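Entry type: protein chain
Record version: 2
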Amino acid sequence: MKQVVLKGRSMIFIAFLLFIWELIIRVADIPQWLLPAPSAIVVEGIHAYQTFLPHAIATIQLALLGLTIGILCGLSVAVLLHRSATLRAFVYPILIVSQNVPVLVLAPLLIIWFGFGLLPKLIIICLVCFFPIVIAAMDGFRQTSPELKHYFAMIGASKRQTFWKLEWPFAYPSIFSGIKIAATYSVMGAVIAEWLGAKKGIGVYMTLAQSSFRTDRVFVAIFTIVLLSLVLFSGIRLLEKLIVKGRGSHAEHSRHI
């Protein structure tokens, strides 16, 4: 009930901000090409639905594919680094340094190396999604209860058994936290990838709208990006609730051991 109230308050606050936006546009008589009113954006979204839909579908497909590959790569690297201290000592600093290089800087190089096909776009999305998943998963592995690890050692469990039976399930909340962050980044990563060169997609739609000074269409694309990010985030959150069961009881049990 409390969450419903909080969500209701958030929706009311957003509606209030949109009302203020609409009011300022009408009172100040701001040109639509400079800053359109929310009502004008909604009208344009309805009118351009059939034109915009193929672009949105293309971006969704690209974002989901890139997110899936990013999750698989991120979790694989996190497991390898957690299981090998030597590998972690060499690779982990490189991961940290790599985050200081903007994706937009790497984008031209990816185009030169791999052309204008699907591969450079997927690499961009993977780079955006990869880091939060790796860091969150590794933190989750490290936070496994020492008492439970000691108990597994006492009963003769091997390191592999300890990892898959204890550390991996214990890290589920952290892993899903990283995936939720990556999911919100994936849509924006797909749009950035489409700016590099694509036949269709929200990024292409935004570029065409910007070149023709159709600010209302740019805002339609922006709001769609936000909506898709929220839908992906909510989907991952629902999946987390279905998969992660009894984590509260695990934490409570570890505190009492």
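Comment: Confidence is low (pLDDT under 50) at residues 249-257.
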